[in-house]
Give the backbone structure.
Amino acid sequence: MSSGINRPFKYGANDRREFIVQNSEVAFRAVNDANGNPTHLARAKAGTETSEDKWQICKITYDANQGITAVEWPQIGGIASSNFIFIFDDVLTYTYS
């Protein structure tokens, strides 16, 4: 699978395509726990529907003091992936590692 699938792009100097790396330039979604901590973060190209398989998703785990202990990625075929190939609406159904 190509790591460039669905990755958000912008046009840079001399109209060269560049990956968007700032969260301010993409659609962003979050799932929060009872303490207001984000447990799942997702980003995609602006205008992407949450039902489309074009999201990059990660899961954040916290300790008892609300400190981050891990950032994990959903699995495809048992292998964690940070590609933009997941459906945000299914964020809670994925296996993360």
